[in-house]
Amino acid sequence: MARKQGNVSQKRFIPVHILLILGGLFMVFPFIYQILMSLSTNPEIQSVPPKFIPDSWQWHNYSDVFTRLPFLHQFWVSVEITVLRTGVQLLLCAMAGYAFARMQFKGRGLLFGLLLAILMVPGQSYLIGQYQVIQNFGLLETPWGIVLPGFFSAFGVFLMRQAFMSLPVELEEAARLDGCNPWQAFWRVMFPLVRPSLFAVMITTVLWSWNDLLWPLIVTTREESMPLSVGIATLAGQHSTDYALMMAASTMAMAPIFILFFSMQKRVIEGLATSGLKG
Amino acid sequence: MSEAGARGAMSAPRPGSASPKGRRRRGSPTSVGAWPLAFIGLLMLGVAVFYYWPIVKNIIISFQQTNAFGGDPEFVGVDNYKALFADPSLMSSIGNTLLYTVIVLLGIPLSVAIASMIELPGLRWKSLYRTLFFMPYLAMPMAIGQVWKIVYNGNFGILNQVLRALGVSDPPYWIVTPGFAIVAVSIFGLWSSIGFNVIILSSGLKGISRELYEAASIDGATGVKQFRWITVPLLTPSIFFLTIMTTIGGFQLFDVLFAMIGNGNPAESRTRSLVTLFYKQAFVNSDQGTGAAIAIVILVFVAIVTVIQFIGQKKWVNYV
């Protein structure tokens, strides 16, 4: 019966549905168009009037990306920097967040304040200095050069500190009584309990790391050391008229993020909402 | 389970979470020895090396003339700043950055409309709609920007084909026409930003108690009135948060611009943002002194606007 009522009431939502479907189509149209173009020929893409459905599907555009471009190289750089950055950042932020939330030590407030100050400064004000540091370390053109500054996230520490503060102290005290040292109390007892916040930090880091452009653009100049976000940019310069190839490459550059996020859709949206509310 | 967990985390900053018990026992095991250092040491070292020091360094460099071919930099006082302010490209970059920011800010009222439609109680397909509007936020700007470039293409782009079909005989060649290009880029930026807005606003809307609406409808307040007097006021903290984030994000305009405006584009000099100008000076022209000065200008710019917004919020943001 409840279901029937639901059906009846959908009728008064018809205008809302129409608006949302139109808006939604506007949002996804570029993606659909991209995939259709990636399976077309160049003349089809440039035809007037537009031809959305290709005469025959050009699947070879996708394999051409691997033979004609350094795609695989750049794909692995992207995977490498995203995994490294996310893993190390989660651990460092959780550890620091735990210390700031649960340990008493001298200068805690001051250090935490100094850390949060970074969030208020736009990225450009440390970019030149970071570049010099990476240069002095001899890490230009390397994945380490791309990820190293991203290991340390004030935002991540802030989020993790909030998460640890919301956990009951009794848990930790019980762990202590059972003979855990602070590391064991953190790693075995507390760390698994802040999973939702870890997830929120993970989402933002993965997304930011995979799509980040300016910093890797500065640190890498050679095609084989670039991640995809930069690789696509150079591609656009060199193969600007081979639209079909570009579309196949850019589809594949975005695919991992979409696959990852759609497989955990509900948690991603919640996680982002959480991280947003913290800002 | 994750939902409950996320809520728990969200309520973290509420009072009562700071534990008086932890403080009661002085010299409890947590406070002894080098443990805190072990937990924060590496992070603070990294932050010092990759954030504090670079900021200090940037301030120093902004007063120096650096030599692209090596050799010691020379102290030149405020010369970099003087040269910067004498250069008309600074003002046009500020203009472009502001125009972009204003257009992307228009996405907030649009997102309020979208989110409040999606969250209407009883509406079907909510999660489908959320997903549709959310997708652009996930997309790599560089990659999806290539699609937008084709949409905006003067000859075969769909936009102009539609315009011609509607009777516009001579539509502009969007991203290569100075004046139109920055607007075209901004619309792409607007499209990219709506997904995040909708998520934040949706979770804000879910936090509004249903009882308020029930009470209002007993008093005879209909849909539009409820929206005006309940939804909007209770959503102002989320709207304020988005305003700050969008403004700061707008001042960082780089990715979507870089994705659309390539080298050799005749509109290039007319589409430069503050960050593009910074990138060009510091890393393309290797003029780090001027680049550093631009970074300081951006810093001051962001600081001023953020302070103004925080002062202004008292007039319109309602905290429960």
Instruction: Estimate what percentage of residues of chain B fall within beta strands.
Output: under 5%
Distance between the termini of chain B: 27 Å
**Element order of chain B: H for helix, E for strand:** HHHEEHHHHHHHHHHHHH
Mean pLDDT of chain B: 87
The number of helical runs of chain A is 16
| Cα radius of gyration of chain B in angstroms | 25 Å
Which whole number gives the mean pLDDT of chain A? 90
Protein model, in words:
The complex is a heterodimer of chains A (279) and B (320). With 279 residues, chain A is mostly helical. In chain A, 74% of the residues lie in helices and 0% in strands. In chain A, helix 2 (14-38) crosses helix 15, helix 5 (71-102) runs antiparallel to helix 12 (195-211) and helix 14 (228-238) packs antiparallel against helix 15. Chain B is mainly α and 320 residues long. Chain B has a two-stranded antiparallel sheet with strand order 1-2. In chain B, strand 1 and strand 2 (74-75) form a beta hairpin. The radius of gyration of chain B is 25 Å and the shape is globular. Chain B starts with a helix and ends with a helix. The chains are: A mainly alpha (279), B mainly alpha (320). Chains A and B meet through helix 1, helix 2, helix 5, helix 6 and helix 7 of A and helix 1, helix 2, helix 3, helix 6 and helix 7 of B.
Q: Key terms for this structure?
A:
heterodimer; A: 279 residues; mainly alpha; disordered N terminus; B: 320 residues; MetI-like fold; globular; MetI-like (chain B)
Layout: helices, strands, pairs:
The complex is a heterodimer of chains A (279) and B (320).
Chain A: H1 2-10, H2 14-38, H3 42-45, H4 60-68, H5 71-102, H6 108-117, H7 124-136, H8 143-147, H9 154-165, H10 169-177, H11 182-190, H12 195-211, H13 214-219, H14 228-238, H15 243-263, H16 265-278
Helix pairs in contact in A: 2-15, 4-15, 5-9, 5-12, 10-11, 12-16, 14-15
Chain B: H1 2-10, H2 20-24, H3 35-61, E1 64-65, E2 74-75, H4 79-86, H5 88-105, H6 107-118, H7 126-138, H8 141-151, H9 158-165, H10 181-206, H11 210-218, H12 223-251, H13 255-260, H14 268-271, H15 274-284, H16 288-316
Antiparallel strand pairs in B: 1-2
Helix pairs in contact in B: 4-16, 5-10, 5-12, 6-10, 7-10, 10-12, 12-16, 15-16
